[in-house]
Structure formats: structure tokens, C-alpha cells
Amino acid sequence: MSASDEPLRILSVCGVGMGSSLMLRMNVEEVLKRLGVRARVEATDVSSARSMQADVIVGQGLHTGELQGLAPVVVTITNFMDKDALQRQLEEALHEQGWL
Amino acid sequence: MGAQPITGARSAVRVADWREAVRAACAPLVEQGAATATYPERCVAMVEEHGPYIVLAPGIALAHARPEDGVEALGVAVVTLAEPIAFGHDDNDPVDVVFAFGSPDARQHVGLLGSLAAALEGGLADRLRAAPDDQAARGLLVEATSEGGDVGA
Predict the structure, then answer these.
(1) Tens digit of each residue's pLDDT (9 = 90 or more) over B73-97
(2) Do the beta carbons of residue A54 and residue A70 sit within 8 Å?
(3) How far A39 CA lies from chain B's nearest CA (Å)?
(4) What's B100's domain CATH number?
(5) Do B62 and A19 touch (CB under 8 A)?
(6) Does the structure show a pLDDT above 70 at B152?
(7) Cβ distance A81 to B121 under 8 Å?
(8) At B146, is the pLDDT very low, low, confident or very high (cuts 50, 70, 90)?
(9) Given A95, B10, B38, B53, which is the most exposed site by the fewest CB atoms within 10 A?
(10) Does some domain include residue B1?
(11) Residue A69 neighbours by CB distance under 10 Å
(12) Which residues of B touch A (CB under 8 A)?
């Protein structure tokens, strides 16, 4: 059963919110398409992310460390070129939440 | 969508530390008028303020600052380093390919970064490392970031 008809709200974060978080947003969108998950993905900077509502936050450990607890799922990535790893991490986390 | 970026490249550059690497990556943007002389220091400051998150993958960094930090036109440049240097990143150090970009607003670089990400997945960093000179490196960057850049080969 699907958890909700609403698309997941996902934030990709980095320091400034327009470089690496943008690349990450594109990766997350592609991976979720592969998984058949509907989502709205927004790239943002880490300080703005603190005051935003999200189901999932994705970023480097440097930033996700500061954002633990702000969303039910916080995914830490290290290599922006490794979409397969991102897919595995998201798949596992979404399963745990019953969102997949 | 959007304009073609201004591009520049330097290969096998020698730098003493990551700050010099970021400045070297930004230098072609300044020389060609895509960014003002203050932009490289703003890119350095971003890392000082927010940490080495610009290191995206093993060996690869993407330096940038904000549009209001002195960007005049959309631009992207790259340096390859003769000797890899540390940015202080837990997983992806040392770095030997440093890109720098500047966007005049929050949107113009979206297509550019998409093309760049796809090219990096396709092995652009290794092709840049193997480039014999600045001109060859620049050619690779132009091919990777121009519209429909994947098609050029």
C-alpha cells in the first residue's frame, strides 16, 4: 500500500544552495524516478534547511550532521558521481519508513 | 536553454594548498571577464565558512560563490593539479581536478551543472587529467558543457 498520495518533500543541501546541492537534486530526482517514487526535490543551503519542512534531507556528512532530527529520513552521501549508492541508501531508508 | 558559458582551463598547475587551487581555477573566469577580481577570494571564503563540501567525489572539487559575489556572466573553468592537494574532506581527498563556476543568477547555471555532472559520470575528470595542455583541457570542458555537449565527441 502507498503511504500517501502526496509526493515526498525532499531537500538536497549544501553550504550555498546552488552548486553541489543542485547536482545532488538532479541525482535524487533521477534515482527516485528509477524507484518509481513521486517527490518534490528542492536544493537549498544548510541554514535555510533548518527552518524547512521535509520528509527526507540529503547531503554531505558535514551538513547532514547538523540536520539530524529535522526530517524522518536524513541520508548522508560522500560521492556525487555514485548514483547507485544513492539509490541503495534512499531505497533502504524509504523502505524503513514504509514509503516504498 | 540559456547562454553558452565562458570557459577556461589550465592543466598541470602547481599549487601550495587548496586556497591556491581555488584561485587558480577561478583565474580564467576573471581574465575573461566572467567574474570580477574579488570572486576568487569569495570562493575561498565559501569553503572557509561552510567547509570542504565543494569536494564532490574522490579527487574532484567544484568551487563557486554567489551571484552577488562578483559574477558578470555565466562561466566555468577547470584546473588540473600537478600534485594533488588536501581540502580537508574526510572521504574525497586528495583533489587534483578543481572546477570553478559563476552564475549571474540562481538559474542560468542549472543546465551547465547538469551537463557537467553527466560528463563527470562519463569520465571527464580522467580525460582532463590526461590532457596534454591547456588548450586540450579547455576543449574537453567546452565539449562537456556546451548544449548537447554529450554529442560532440
Answers:
(1) 999 999 999 999 999 999 999 999 9
(2) yes
(3) 19
(4) 3.40.930.10
(5) yes
(6) no
(7) yes
(8) confident
(9) A95
(10) no
(11) 6
(12) 46, 49-54, 56-58, 60, 62, 64-66, 90-92, 101, 103, 106, 109-110, 113-114, 116-117, 120-121
